[in-house]
Write a structure and sequence with these properties.
The protein has 14 helices and 12 strands. It is an alpha/beta fold and 383 residues long. InterPro entries: Ac_transferase_dom_sf, Acyl_transferase_dom, Acyl_Trfase/lysoPLipase, Malonyl_CoA-ACP_transAc_FabD, Malonyl_transacylase_ACP-bd, Mitochondrial_malonyltrans.
């Protein structure tokens, strides 16, 4: 029951080869932190941080465009993973520990210049109501999670742990953090995207009466049946759908306010243990977020995105992607697509993941992983 509470809180608080002759080989510099600064080679590079898993990353320049095989990471075999939290993990006081490590503290200073307000003050002192808002919590969690990587790097054995990580992912917002850690874009560019994402999602939520609710105690098939029953009683504008496949027994439903109310009214008749209305701005990960997509697409088109140095598992399809243009499309779709977190964690465990780390505020992800496999080894790294 304890892990169930942890898992449900993820939302109850708020709750992405044309001509081989033109390829060249380059060697990346070793990891110093989370490797989000500086471009990765644009054509071909060899991973050196773990020789047993070294691979050549092939891409080919065609004219002025670099074509990357998007299936580059399809056969990934995880041993050590970094998992990053999503909206809902925020808590007043986060970021305080990070101030003891200069490299971590520096991230908040950089963030202030990009965001135009004192992020650290809001993280440490609140007020909670402001920190919980979509436009504040998303950049706050992004920065604090990457600050946690800096804290880990500063401790004994930390650099070796970071070097050993061979796959990463994040819950909803956390996918942006994972991409920054994997070097797909810089810390600064990632923060700009997260800032815009929060603003665009808030505006989309303000445009229509919508909500989210967690359904506890049912499998996904039963939750779908519950949604179908509710949808028979409301207009098209109030339809609901499963928006977050979090873990067995815990799924979030999003949609119009009347549809969510119908779900709540019918839940007990479907033998749900409980429902928890989520303190979020609106129906995230559904078509209600459509107004945010065009803004995200424009921002992503203007952002330099590189092939990640390790696999980053997408929330949209629970698969890793290597082609920067595909990553941009996936991130734009993420706002309106159901989060496939259950499949992501299940796949990591099935593929043989031996150790994982939750980096950032809260312990929601650890609760989910433990719920899916009690013997799983996961460590929390806060900031």
């Amino acid at each position: 029951m304890h892990s169930l509470r942890l898992a449900s809180s993820a939302h109850s608080q708020s709750l992405f080869t044309m001509s081989a002759a033109s390829a060249s080989l380059a060697l990346p510099s070793p990891l110093s932190s989370f490797r989000s600064n500086g471009p990765l080679p644009s054509r071909c590079f060899l991973r050196l941080n773990n020789p047993s898993r070294s691979r050549v990353f092939m891409s080919v320049s065609v004219g002025s465009q670099t074509v990357v095989d998007d299936a580059l990471f399809a056969d990934y075999k995880p041993t050590s993973a970094f998992l990053f939290p999503g909206q809902g993990a925020q808590a007043v006081g986060m970021g305080k520990e990070a101030q003891a490590v200069p490299a971590a503290a520096e991230l908040y200073k950089k963030a202030n210049n990009i965001l135009g307000f004192d992020l650290l003050d809001l993280c440490i002192n609140g007020p909670k109501e402001k920190l919980d808002s979509t436009v504040i919590s998303q950049p706050a969690i992004y920065v604090t999670s990457l600050a946690a990587v800096k804290l880990l790097h500063a401790r004994d054995g930390g650099p070796q742990i970071i070097d050993s990580v061979d796959v990463t992912c994040g819950l909803s917002l956390g996918e942006y953090t994972a991409l920054a850690f994997a070097g797909a874009f810089s810390f600064e560019d990632g923060l700009k995207l997260v800032k815009l994402r929060g603003e665009a999602m808030q505006e989309a939520a303000d445009a229509a009466k919508s909500a989210m609710v967690s359904i506890i105690g049912l499998d996904s098939e039963k939750v779908q049946q519950l949604c179908d029953a509710a949808n028979q009683e409301v207009d098209v504008a109030d339809k609901v759908q499963i928006a977050n496949y979090l873990c067995p027994g815990n799924y979030a439903v999003s949609g119009g306010l009347k549809g969510v109310e119908a779900v709540e009214a019918k839940a007990k008749s479907f033998k749900a243990r409980m429902t928890v209305r989520l303190a979020v701005a609106g129906a995230f990960h559904t078509s209600f977020m459509d107004p945010a997509v065009s803004r995200l697409e424009a921002a992503l088109a203007a952002t330099q995105i590189r092939t990640p140095r390790i696999p980053v598992i997408s929330n949209v399809d629970a698969q890793p992607h290597a082609d920067p243009e595909t990553i941009k499309k996936i991130l734009a779709r993420q706002a309106t697509s159901p989060v496939q977190w259950e499949t992501t964690v299940k796949t990591l465990l099935t593929k043989g993941m031996k150790k994982s780390y939750e980096l950032g505020p809260g312990k929601v992800i650890a609760g989910i992983v433990k719920r899916m496999d009690k013997s799983a080894e996961i460590e929390n790294i806060g900031a």
